[in-house]
Every structure is written in structure tokens, then in C-alpha cells.
């Protein structure tokens, strides 16, 4: 297996980056039931190449440019092998002292490497420190729950007669409209209101806009309590104005969390710490060594100013978890959501020692230089444009003109499998993300990738007509943003849909045939209005009416958008329990659209002339 891994990585450049398989292909190759008797290792090993590899997206490939990096390295692999052999559960110091103490040391190392203030490090003069979480998403949730707990306790001291559930119902969290979808998920889990703050022309959340939103909510009787500042957004790697955002949070007594999952790794280079200005005022920050520092997923380092805030939120101490050194040593079970934790610090320790600070800095600088190379190639071709300023290793680009052309380009690039990119939505513009994700990528790879993009572009633009399943304007995209079950907040990253990454119109046809029950009802429309009012994009469910109107000739009927009104539509016309099938008050006219309310009536069949 070790030889196979080395051979795989050495020859990964020759493999198709994005697999050309159909959903369900693994089910066709593996028996439905588990074997009764054990199978010989050679048979199992053979199926790695025969069954698994044909369906793998090769994230370590030098021609992989989708998402952000998920790098690994041989030092990290060796550490992971040892970690799996030891297999300790480091919930307390006593459960594995080396696991706990090494984590304290390497989080201090990394904190110093990126220039964090002293109060974020483990030391006798500070209540802060670092902890390795599974993901940046979990770190966001932990900070939100900790901030929620502190705010509720503070409010109860001032208003002891107010029930906790009433306080909880008024809590408001804030983030940029460019923030990662995990912020929305954290708010859902925490049962708090999430408000998106409009970003500026640079896709950045400013302190002024944040303060404006906080002031408005206070006037409504709401309780602002937590802010997530993004350092390196998913859509275009933009940066919120941390300095001014942190000042607002400090003044208003809000917990300020910095999500620096990708870009935070670059802070080991002093020239990129300009985006970290204001960090001395925030309460927590997280970055992913598993993204850009060649450490295996999962590995997210989170630093907090005051670890007591985490203890208050997550401290559960049954008798069987106490030990003679309780209170004298750190028990990381109080710093996280799970009880147990893996020995993740070992791989971070191996990598930092193997490459050294200088080696990791050179690795970051190389990725940025390659992104600059790709950016220069785009700028030299007048057919393309770069809608957002390049930061670090991510370049977003598009063909000039409508969204359909760029979407088709993205699909065709991915369907060929030679390189892999994913799209994003920047204020209604469909863009393609091109990120340097592999330490194996060279300038020659960039030139080869650019040739692939231009070859596909030349073929696309030479056609007289585009074979696209959906005709629409910039606001509503084609199959990729309709079929992908992605977070509805901007930027919309299409990261899981087969139809989003391939030019497969027949997928739309087949999908439309299984949608028989109209979903157009008052409750759904009310939910969509909330999405519209929050500035987010349509979700999959909210656009099912488009699929219901899909004909077998691959043409979508145009459906009038749902009204952005502050009150429900005429209840007498369309009640909360009704649908076009159960209530004949929506009358089908041209293109199966009701003449009175503009909603889709596809699938409604009048029962009588009176119903007509």
C-alpha cells in the first residue's frame, strides 16, 4: 500500500482530475450484501484501482483548481499512520498526556508563526490558548455558542426576571453576505437570528455597515451578540475590514470571531498580515492547516482570548472523567463539542518540523506566484474579465457577456476532465474560480491549463448557437445553480451537483419527470420571501416550479418571480393550505402561469368548466 500511495502521487498528473462517471456507478461494482467470510488482501487491494479510483476527484492533482486546497504531505502521512496505530482518545490530560501537551505546544508555535497577540497563546499570564478542532465550521459554531452563553448570562444579571427563552429569541448574529455557508448553519443550530451585512464594492464587510445593522436591530428590541468577520471569502477571497469590525464589536460588547480558514495560512508570511490588523480586539480566530499547510484533513486550529467562555458553554464533568490533576492541566473536552479527540497535533508537529517556517513560507509564496501567472494570462485575452481583485492563490474570471456563456464554458471544461473548476456568484455574475491547490503545480501546468481553457473557449464561441437547457437573465442561472443543493447565501458555490459540473441537459429532463406534485403554496412563498429579503439567492426547493414547467424538448417555461412584498398574497385567491391542484382559483393561462398572481400552475387540470 505504501508503494501504491507513492506511485499514485508521483503519477497523479496523468490522471483525469474530475471523474467521468454517472451517479450510482459504485453500486454497480460492489455486491449488495457484505461477504460472510473474509476476503484475501490481494482481492481487496485490486478493487482500490478497479472500483474506487475511477470515481475519485483527485484533490492532490496539480490540475485541480476547484474549491480551496486540501493538501497533504509525506510527513503528515507518516504522522497519521502513527496516530492511527496509537489511536488514543484525548478528552482529558490523563487520557493521553502527550496528546494534550503537544497540542498546546504546536498551537502556540503556529500562533507565533502568524503573529497572534500573546493573549491567544497558552501561558500563565493569559486565559487564552489554542485548540485543534475538526473544521472551521465547527470553530464557527463553538464561538457562536460561547458568545450566546455569555450574552444570555450578562443580560440575566441586568434583567433577572426575563425568561431565558425570551432572551434567546431576540439574539442576533451578523456576517457578511459573502460569508461561508457554515455561518448560516451555526445560526440554525444555535437557534439565533442571522443578519447578512451588505458588502462593499470590494466584497468586504465594513465597520460602518455593521454598526448600521446593529443600531437598527437594537431599535427593534433585538439583542446583537456575535459577529463573524471573514478573512478570505469562498467566492473571491475578499477580506472583511477586521480592524473596524473589531472596534465596533468591542464597543458594542459583541463576540467577534475571525474565519480565516484558507487565507490564515498565508499569515505565516509577514507581508500578508496586513489583513490581520485589528486581531488584538477579537475574541477568537480559526484557520485550517489542512488547507494550505500540507497537513491532512481534518485539522483546524482555533485560538480564543478567554478559554473560560468555552468552559462555561461546554463543561460537563461526570465522575468517570475526573482525575487527580483535574484543574491543574487542560482537559480539551471542555474546549469542544465532542468529548473525545484524535491525536491531530502529531501531524502538525511533523509538518512544521519537516519544512520549517521558511519552507512553509516558500510554499505559500509559490502558490501566490502561480496565481499571478494565471491572472496575467487572463488579462492578456480580451475575451475574459476578472470581476474581483485577485488575492493570494485564487483568481475568479468569466467570459465577457451573459452568464450562460460562462456557465457553459465551466461545464464543458469539467466534462473533459483535464482540469477541474467550480463556479461562484458575485453580485449576480457567474464566475469561474481558479485556485492553486497543489504543491506539485508548476508554471508549465498553468500554461497547459490555460491552453485547455482557451481551446474550450474557442470551440464554444465558434458555435452558432449554444446548447443550453435554460435561457434566463443574470439573476437566475441555468441548471448548475438550480440543481445544486448548495447554501442559498451568496456566494453560491456549486460544489456537489453532477449537473452543475457537466453539460448534461438530459439530467434536467429526467429530473423534471419525477416532479409531479406542485410545491407552490403560501408557506413556501413566505419562506422564499424571507430569502429574498435577506439578500440570498434562490434555493433548490424555492425554484422547483421551474422544473415542473420543463418540457421534453429541453426548454424551460418562464415563471414570474415571487413578489418581494412584506405581506402575504391575497389569501382569498390562494390560501395557505391550497395548491394549484387543490384550489382552482389559480387559472392556467399562457405558459401555465396564473393571470392573477403570476405563480406557476403547471400540473393543474380543471375538474369542470366552472373550475376553468
Written overview of the protein:
The chain is α/β, with parallel strands linked by helices and 612 residues long. The chain folds into four domains: 2-60, dopa decarboxylase, N-terminal domain, CATH 1.20.1340.10; 120-324, 3-Layer(aba) Sandwich (Aspartate Aminotransferase, domain 2); 356-457, Aspartate Aminotransferase, domain 1 (Alpha-Beta Complex); 504-612, no CATH class. The chain is built from 19 helices and eleven strands. It has helices at 2-10, 41-52, 74-86, 97-113, 136-158, 164-168, 181-190, 207-219, 242-252, 289-292, 307-314, 345-379, 403-416, 443-462, 479-483, 498-501, 505-513, 522-533, 544-548; strands spanning 129-133, 171-176, 193-197, 223-230, 255-259, 284-287, 300-304, 384-385, 394-399, 422-426, 429-435. α7 links the parallel β2 and β3 (193-197). α4 (97-113) packs parallel to α12 and α12 (345-379) crosses α14 (443-462). The longest helix has 35 residues, at 345-379. The termini are far apart. Mean pLDDT is 80; it is low at 464-500, 515-519, 535-585, 587-593 and 598-612.
Amino acid at each position: 500500500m505504501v508503494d501504491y500511495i507513492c506511485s499514485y502521487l508521483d503519477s497523479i498528473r496523468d490522471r483525469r482530475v474530475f471523474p467521468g462517471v454517472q451517479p450510482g456507478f459504485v453500486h454497480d461494482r460492489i455486491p449488495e450484501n457484505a461477504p460472510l467470510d473474509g476476503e484475501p488482501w490481494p482481492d481487496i487491494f485490486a478493487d482500490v484501482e478497479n472500483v474506487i479510483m475511477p470515481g475519485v476527484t483527485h484533490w492532490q492533482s496539480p490540475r485541480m483548481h476547484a474549491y480551496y486546497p486540501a493538501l497533504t504531505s509525506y510527513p503528515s502521512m507518516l504522522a497519521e499512520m502513527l496516530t492511527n496505530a496509537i489511536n488514543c482518545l484525548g478528552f482529558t490530560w490523563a487520557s493521553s498526556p502527550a496528546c494534550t501537551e503537544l497540542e498546546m505546544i504546536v498551537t502556540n508555535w503556529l500562533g507565533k508563526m502568524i503573529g497572534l497577540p500573546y493573549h491567544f497563546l497558552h501561558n500563565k499570564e493569559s486565559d487564552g490558548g489554542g485548540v485543534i478542532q475538526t473544521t472551521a465550521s465547527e470553530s464557527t459554531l463553538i464561538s457562536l455558542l460561547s458568545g450566546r452563553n455569555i450574552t444570555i448570562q450578562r443580560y440575566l444579571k441586568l434583567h433577572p426576571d426575563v425568561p431565558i427563552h425570551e432572551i434567546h429569541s431576540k439574539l442576533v448574529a451578523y456576517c457578511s453576505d459573502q460569508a461561508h455557508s457554515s455561518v448560516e448553519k451555526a445560526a440554525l443550530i444555535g437557534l439565533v437570528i442571522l443578519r447578512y451585512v451588505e458588502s462593499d464594492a470590494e466584497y468586504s464587510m465594513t465597520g460602518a455597515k455593521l454598526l448600521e445593522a446593529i443600531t437598527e436591530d437594537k431599535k427593534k428590541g433585538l439583542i446583537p451578540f456575535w459577529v463573524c468577520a471573514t478573512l478570505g471569502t469562498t467566492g473571491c477571497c475578499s477580506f472583511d475590514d477586521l480592524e473596524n469590525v473589531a472596534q465596533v464589536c468591542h464597543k458594542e460588547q459583541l463576540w467577534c470571531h475571525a474565519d480565516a480558514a484558507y487565507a490564515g495560512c498565508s499569515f505565516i508570511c509577514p507581508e500578508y498580515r496586513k489583513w490581520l490588523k485589528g486581531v488584538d480586539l477579537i475574541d477568537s480566530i480559526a484557520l485550517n492547516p489542512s488547507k494550505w499547510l500540507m497537513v491532512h484533513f481534518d485539522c483546524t486550529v482555533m485560538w480564543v482570548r478567554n478559554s473560560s467562555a468555552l468552559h462555561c458553554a461546554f463543561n460537563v464533568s461526570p465522575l468517570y472523567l475526573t482525575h487527580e490533576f483535574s484543574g491543574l492541566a487542560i482537559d480539551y473536552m471542555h474546549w469542544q463539542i465532542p468529548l473525545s479527540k484524535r491525536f491531530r497535533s502529531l501531524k502538525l508537529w511533523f509538518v512544521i518540523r519537516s519544512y520549517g517556517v521558511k519552507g512553509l513560507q516558500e510554499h505559500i509564496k509559490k502558490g501566490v506566484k502561480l496565481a499571478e501567472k494565471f491572472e496575467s494570462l487572463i488579462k492578456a485575452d480580451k475575451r475574459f474579465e476578472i470581476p474581483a481583485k485577485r488575492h493570494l492563490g485564487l483568481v475568479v474570471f468569466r467570459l465577457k457577456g451573459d452568464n450562460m456563456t460562462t456557465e457553459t464554458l465551466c461545464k464543458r471544461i469539467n466534462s473533459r476532465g483535464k482540469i477541474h473548476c467550480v463556479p461562484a456568484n458575485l453580485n449576480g455574475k457567474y464566475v469561474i474560480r481558479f485556485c492553486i491547490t497543489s504543491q506539485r503545480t508548476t508554471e508549465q501546468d498553468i500554461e497547459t491549463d490555460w491552453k485547455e481553457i482557451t481551446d474550450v473557449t474557442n470551440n464554444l464561441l465558434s458555435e452558432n448557437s449554444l446548447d443550453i437547457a435554460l435561457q434566463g437573465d443574470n439573476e437566475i442561472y441555468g441548471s448548475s445553480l438550480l440543481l445544486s443543493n448548495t447554501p442559498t447565501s451568496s456566494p453560491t458555490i456549486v460544489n456537489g451537483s453532477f449537473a452543475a459540473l457537466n453539460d448534461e441537459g438530459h439530467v434536467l429532463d429526467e429530473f423534471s419527470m419525477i416532479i409531479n406534485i406542485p410545491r407552490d403554496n403560501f408557506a413556501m412563498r413566505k419562506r422564499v420571501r424571507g430569502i429574498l429579503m435577506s439578500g440570498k439567492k434562490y434555493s433548490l426547493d424555492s425554484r422547483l416550479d421551474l422544473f415542473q414547467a420543463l418540457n421534453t424538448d429541453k426548454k424551460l417555461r418562464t415563471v414570474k418571480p415571487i413578489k418581494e412584498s412584506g405581506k402575504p398574497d391575497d389569501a382569498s385567491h390562494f390560501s395557505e393550505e391550497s395548491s394549484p391542484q387543490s384550489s382552482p382559483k389559480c387559472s392556467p393561462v399562457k405558459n401555465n402561469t396564473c393571470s392573477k398572481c403570476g405563480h406557476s400552475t403547471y400540473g393543474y387540470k380543471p375538474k369542470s368548466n366552472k373550475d376553468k
